[in-house]
Amino acid sequence: MASIEGLVPITRNFLASFYDKYPFSPLSDDVSRLTSQIRSFTADLQHQFPLTQGESLLVNEVDRQPPHKMDENMWKNREHIEEIIFLLEKSHWPQLLQQQSTPEDIEFGIILGQLKEKFLNTLKVLESFQSNNSENIFNTVMTYMPQDFRGTLIKQQRERSERAKQAEIDAVVNSGGSIRDRYALLWRQQMDRRKQLALLGSATGVYKTLVKYLVGVPQVLLDFIRQINDDEGPMEEQRHRYGPPLYSLTTMVLSIRLFIHLSWGRYEHRNLAGPQASVLQQAVDVYTSEFERFIKFISEVFANSPFFISAEEAGAMDASRKNEEYKEITVLAGKTHEVSLPVESINSYIGWDFSLAPGKMSMDIGFSVECTNSTGQKTFGFYLQMILPYRRYESDQGNFCTCEAGKYTLIWDNSYSSFFKKVLRYKVDCIPPVAESAQSVNEAEG
């Protein structure tokens, strides 16, 4: 095992000392004050008019504590913002308000348009934060992955997974699913990503087939991603430090949503009075400004947080393990070198990384792949020639997805050379299909 000298285990105590450098300025007192006023207004509406079943569910959600996990709170804020934007669309206003029959209605309509724009801007800030944070985490993890065909495979797996997730979301939208339905799916997908991280860190489930390809990844990284989201793991310190203000903002936006929702359902019986409209406007101003301030702050914390050790530290580790990954062989002039890989199932990946030892003059070597089925017949010759035509390289790394089971032979050809031997340094492997299974999900939950 390679030395891990100089690597600092990332623990909750370690993060606590780091977070001391990033104190969050308390939320404005207006957050609690305006939330209380909005809740008082909704209590009056509940008392005067019976609730529908859907309204009761929303009231129950307001009365519950916000989720404990910070990322779940981010998704909840995003969901409630979208629900509010939906309510603030003119086509969803109460019929009486849509008619704009009085100067007061016209003025209130202008205010609602302004509030909608504020929420739209905040939604863009939140979406950008979530997208950038996800990309940054993935890119950080990838700095520790082997920079060869295995790293490429991990990226390809992620791209396919994200396309499949987007297709699921599109299907929900196209089938007329609600905003709530869409966000329930989005959060489930987020939890799937988390399970995959846990599986990677613990080398269980489908990742039993991948862990041996992660040679060179510091164990401290695998340990961290395995327990990153444990209830008492390192992230609990983040929830302890920065959760309370986020929880308050989650409660505030949900209270605003409930107030607008109840008001729209009772508008013909009780128009929003001047003071209530003013409080609503203030509440939206305070929520959007404070939430955007929190996102800006937490973005800086995340960008600098030592969740993973630096790539420089990882690169300073003993290089002996990397050398053990490669084989080195001399291919004599006029000869070839072959490596055969048995492939038991389709959609496996054949990957390679090779180079020639530098010499006094520029040299290359031919490279191609053949497939032989169980009867000894060479198959898919045209297919392989199309995607992997014979070429001469100084070095190359790549991979392809197999179309059938059989024996795949990687061939390095130096037969065209009459005088020069080639020193070939290479590694190859066959990685079975990696697809989330019910068994692996159960292992992650167990």
Automatic annotation (TrEMBL):
SUPFAM superfamilies in UniProt: Supernatant protein factor (SPF), C-terminal domain (SSF101576)
Lineage: superkingdom: Eukaryota
Gene3D superfamilies (alphabetical): GOLD domain
PROSITE patterns registered for this protein in UniProt: GOLD
InterPro entries given in the database record: GOLD_dom, GOLD_dom_sf
Residue ranges occupied by any GOLD domain in the UniProt entry: 322-430
Record's protein name: GOLD domain-containing protein
